[in-house]
Write a sequence for this structure.
């Protein structure tokens, strides 16, 4: 059923939990309904924004248009031969329910991505990642609707042009397609990835299984990241910046303890959290917004923050990091 609400607060629908008003909030249960909506005057006459779990958004003011959300959340598995199983999940399935489904079914590949807020559709747009795994590693293909022609189109993994926290859906084709389902390819015999940070230490002597890895990831995340149901945030506010070798060498000679990781095309990925921390970001606040005390990369809505507070704090952080390191931080969060 198509469900249209008018003049509604988006507070429950985005993880910063600010009291933003939307002119319309519209949910649908099938692809046919989505097409019907796209062809309707409601969407033709108003601007619209499709959201998932609202976990990567900052509404900077009330939204005078249609906020769309998928309630499609079925999941099914398909044979993938001796070693693999395909799992097709619809866009509105809560991401962590999908991870739990795979772990319960004994299928490996997404256990390191446990407990990430958000939904399946956005996972494929954003290329979510954590603890040494990115979702592109397990995406086979992405099912979409073209918002202009209403045609269905399936993008192969290669066509999605995945890179660190990005895809074609965030670049050239931004706003052009709505993801309706994602086909993932998972392993019958898991290959564990335990090199990141202190995952192994947390696992200790426990036998390594999909469940124990999932639990270890949940433990690390809950130590460092706020639970969005309790403290509003959008996870990492900035992406980790990627710099050229020369820039990195100059920084390293001045700051020998600086963490860095190899990135695409021989470049170097720096730790935004470390840069913010060491540029004096720890404890900074503007109005009700604050740098999260356990992880400097996260901005939290500590005390009834206004969007302006978050914007001003983000700007202040960018300025501190730029002045000290000559590195530009780019928000991971989408400003609406
Ligand atoms: N660090 C500091 N100060 C801090 C926090 C961290 O110096 O306040 C240092 C740590 O000591 C560590 C480094 O920063 O050496 C990296 O920290 P962490 O392992 O927490 O990873 P991150 O780079 O800050 C990224 C992702 C997270 C993901 C974690 C774990 C991005 C933008 N963020 O954070 O993803 O959970 O790795 O894999 O890539 C998200 O995207 O919303 C998100 C939470």
């Amino acid at each position: 059923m198509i469900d249209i609400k008018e003049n509604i607060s988006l507070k429950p629908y985005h993880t910063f939990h600010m009291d933003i008003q939307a002119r319309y909030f519209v949910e649908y249960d099938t692809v046919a309904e989505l097409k019907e909506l796209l062809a309707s005057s409601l969407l033709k006459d108003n601007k619209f924004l499709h959201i998932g779990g609202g976990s990567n958004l900052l509404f900077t003011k009330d939204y005078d248009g249609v906020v769309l959300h998928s309630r499609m959340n079925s999941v099914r598995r398909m044979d993938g031969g001796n070693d693999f199983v395909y799992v097709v999940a619809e866009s509105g399935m809560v991401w962590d329910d999908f991870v739990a489904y795979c772990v319960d079914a004994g299928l490996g590949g997404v256990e390191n991505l446990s407990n990430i807020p958000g939904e399946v559709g956005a996972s494929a747009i954003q290329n979510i990642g954590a603890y040494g795994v990115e979702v592109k590693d397990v995406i086979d293909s992405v099912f979409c609707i073209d918002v202009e022609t209403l045609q269905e189109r399936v993008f192969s993994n290669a066509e999605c042009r995945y890179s660190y926290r990005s895809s074609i859906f965030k670049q050239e084709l931004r706003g052009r397609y709505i993801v309706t389902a994602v086909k993932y390819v998972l392993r019958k015999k898991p290959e564990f990835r335990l090199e990141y940070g202190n995952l192994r230490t947390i696992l200790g002597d426990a036998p390594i299984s999909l469940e124990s890895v999932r639990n270890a990831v949940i433990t690390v995340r809950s130590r460092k990241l706020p639970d969005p149901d309790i403290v509003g945030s959008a996870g990492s506010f900035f992406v980790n910046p990627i710099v050229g070798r020369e820039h990195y060498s100059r920084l390293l000679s001045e700051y020998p303890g600086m963490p860095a990781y190899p990135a695409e095309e021989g470049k170097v990925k720096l730790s935004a959290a470390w840069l913010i921390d060491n540029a004096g970001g720890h404890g900074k606040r503007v109005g009700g917004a604050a740098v999260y005390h356990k992880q400097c990369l996260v901005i939290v809505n500590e005390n009834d923050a206004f969007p302006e507070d978050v914007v001003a704090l983000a700007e202040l952080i960018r300025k501190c990091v730029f002045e000290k390191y000559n590195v530009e931080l780019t928000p991971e969060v989408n400003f609406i």
User: Anything to note?
Assistant: The chain has nine helices and 20 strands. The mean pLDDT is 96. The two ends are 27 Å apart (CA to CA).
